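[job 4471] stage=fold_predict status=RUNNING
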Amino acid sequence: MDLGISGKRALVTASSKGLGRGSAEALAAAGVDLVLNARGAEALEATAEAIRRAHGVTVTTVAADIVSEEGRARVLDAAGQVDILVTNAGGPPPGLWSDWEREDFIKALDANMLTPIALMKAQLPGMIAQGWGRVVNITSQSVKTPLPALGLSNSARAGLTGYVGGTSRQVAPFGVTINNLLPGSHATDRTLSLAQAESERTGKSVEEIRLATAARIPVGRQGTAEEFGAMCAFLCSVHAGFIVGQNILLDGGASNTTM
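[job 4471] inference complete, writing structure tokens
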């Protein structure tokens, strides 16, 4: 399928690996020029070069902490006005309800709610002015099915979801759509770090935890960054203009909900 976005320009944050990279790869395959951001310069440059070689698109990189005001300013300055915005940031650490203090919640809100909002506020006016734009926020399945160990993530990402619910309806008349992608368990570094934390807490091996996780997913496996990226690219396409303010689960059926 021709996604109709060849020649457009996208900013994808936290995109040197994992789901951010999967999304960037899929957009590049559709002919989209990219501005990629991550904290680690070496991994970021390696990803950018691989995408350039594979897809022949222009890739600009900005190694910076997107959560900091200084880092975000650098990224937005390098990006200029884009047609597509994909927000992504690493999730906060797991733990128990009794582990977290006010400062922990502030950090989670900064990374997983306030940073995506700041990026949208910076890009939406230009999208509205040009009469077209796509925003996809990478959140988590925990928005729909809260995970006990991820209380910080549950809270911050739910806040972002509420913001998107209202904002998406306000910008839709101008040809701009905002939607959220809710990944379940995917084979990424984030999932590995969560498995390692559980291993330390329970004494089980990481492999035992990985197999048990896969067994709880109806399709019998974890997701891949490639299939996640394909859904992201579709939401950014000309074919997705009637999809507004939605929270789309990519979890292999793990969330047993009606709605």
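[job 4471] summary: The longest helix spans residues 102-130.
[job 4471] exit 0
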